Give the backbone structure.
Amino acid sequence: MRRTWTLVAILAGTLFAGSAAIAQQSTMPPDAKVYILWPADGQVIKGAFWVRMALSGAGIAPAGVEKANTGHHHLIIDAELPPLDQPIPNDHNHLHFGLGQTEARLDLPPGKHTLQLLLADANHVPHQPPLYSKRITITVVQ
C-alpha cells in the first residue's frame, strides 16, 4: 500500500508541475523574432550541413535558466508545430538546443525536408504568444 501512495504522490506532483508550467507561460518582447539564418528556403544542399539559428529582440539562455526575455531554440524537422501550451517533445523531429546553441550540424537523408524554429522557456514550453520562424523547405542531395 505504501508504494501505491508514493506512486500517486509522484504522479500528482508531476501533473501539478506540468500544469503550473502551462499556466505560467513566459512572455517575450513584442518585437522579438526567431529565424533561420542558413540554409535559405528552397536551398539544395549536398550531404550534412550546419543550420544557423538566430533571434533578435530577446536573448538566449540555456534550459533551466529562468531569465526574463530569454529562451532557447528548438528545431522542428519534417513536422508541424507541437501544441504551443505544453513542453516541446524531444525526438528526431523536435531537436532541443538547451545549452543555448545557435548552430548545429544536421545529417538528413536525401530528399525534401522542412525546418522551423520554435523558441521556448527554461522548461521547454513555448512563450505566450509563441515565437516561431517561417517554415522553410530544403532539398538534401548526396
In short: The first strand starts at residue 33 and ends at 38. Strands lie at 33-38, 44-46, 49-56, 59-60, 70-77, 94-96, 103-106, 111-120, 136-141. Confidence is low (pLDDT under 50) at residues 1-23. The chain has one domain: 2-141.
